[in-house]
Design a protein that fits this description.
about 90 residues; mainly alpha; about 0% strand; rod-shaped
Length: about 90
Amino acid sequence: MQNYASAKLNKTAIEGTIFEFFVYVPRRQAAQVQRLRRATTPAIQRERERLRQHAAANNLQIGPIAEQHLATFNARAPKGTELAIPTDATTC
């Protein structure tokens, strides 16, 4: 114990000084992620009309439930996305 106590007292000013510092690095700007949009009634109506035009042009028959599902699905897609028909259990 005496050795530790005497060694503690014999430190110079530099040896007894502790510096703490923090480095701030700003985060990189993340790329804009396109997210799903809210499927509002006007957006669903627009997509329903696009879907009807697509069905008429490609000779497709789409029932009312599948039409509602596809219109809602496409209304949630980011702006500028082409009309998509998913291959899930509802539309198969």
